[in-house]
Amino acid sequence: MTVKTNTDKYLVKPGKKIKMADFDTDYNGHLDKEVGKSELDRVKGELAKYQEVLYAADSRSVLIIFQAMDAAGKDGVIAHVMSGLNPQGCQVYSFKTPNAEEYDHDFLWRHYKALPERGRIGIHNRSHYENVLVCKVHPEYILSERLPNYTSVDKIDEDFWKNRYESIRNFERHLTNNGVVILKFFLHVSKDEQKKRFLDRIEDPAKNWKFSSGDIKERALWDDYMKAYEEALNETSTDEAPWYVIPADKKWYTRLAVSQIIAEKLESLDLQFPKLPKAEVEALAGYKEQLLKEK
């Protein structure tokens, strides 16, 4: 049985202002968990087929971006949804604090370097959006970029952020004009669910390594982050590169919703396997006969 969900429910429509509070973090599509897991297995099979055609056609690439608060489940989504893909056609980058070389370039440089080649799927676990999210909450981080005219935090004004959003929109428009399909997911976990997951990491010795004191410090800035996400999504959800706000309190449903959106997008591309020139097709019969004659 195929389960269809209204994936447009999660879409941040370009030009329409959203509030994070408008999105239900606990939504499960009115599905039973076991039904959802079964559907995820089916969709992963579809993804594998679409990936094969994407690779063979060699005309487009797919960039999938994941952003979220801590413990929202980005790693789990990547591991489960992409588990059926051929590793040769898929690459994952997890972006941390920029290093010295990266700070010597513009903020998009390291992300441009990590883009997938034609025929491949690239996944960015955190992305260039950190520069308008964590940097918006911690504007002092901008000073490390050593930008002209921005030598102190009080000089980082609204015009600065407007220009940065414009840079991102232009960057993504350039990519889509050159065959890159961009899908952007914000995994929307509730503050209560994050608390439960943090406690689980503290109480389970096998998960202690996942917890950091910095997680608690950032949690205290929850409202600031929600405001930063609202503005970033409103400013950068475009027809070319839309944002999806995915409910993340139920991990199994998060994985299903993301996989369905990716599958629907790949299907809509209507990619085809390359067709051989007539002469090469005619030559295949001869090659077949030659192989069959081998002892």
UniProtKB/TrEMBL annotation:
TM stretches of this protein: none
Name used for this protein in its record: Polyphosphate kinase 2 family protein
GO MF terms, alphabetically ordered: polyphosphate kinase activity
Residue ranges occupied by any Polyphosphate kinase-2-related domain in the UniProt entry: 31-270
Single GO biological process annotation from the record: polyphosphate metabolic process
Keyword GTP-binding on entry: no
UniProt-listed NCBIfam families: PPK2_rel_1 (TIGR03709)
A UniProt-annotated Pfam family: PPK2
InterPro entries attached to this UniProt entry: P-loop_NTPase, Polyphosphate_phosphotransfera, PPK2-rel_1, PPK2-related
This protein's UniProt keywords: Kinase, Transferase
Family under the similarity heading: Belongs to the polyphosphate kinase 2 (PPK2) family. Class I subfamily.
Organism, as annotated: Pedobacter chitinilyticus
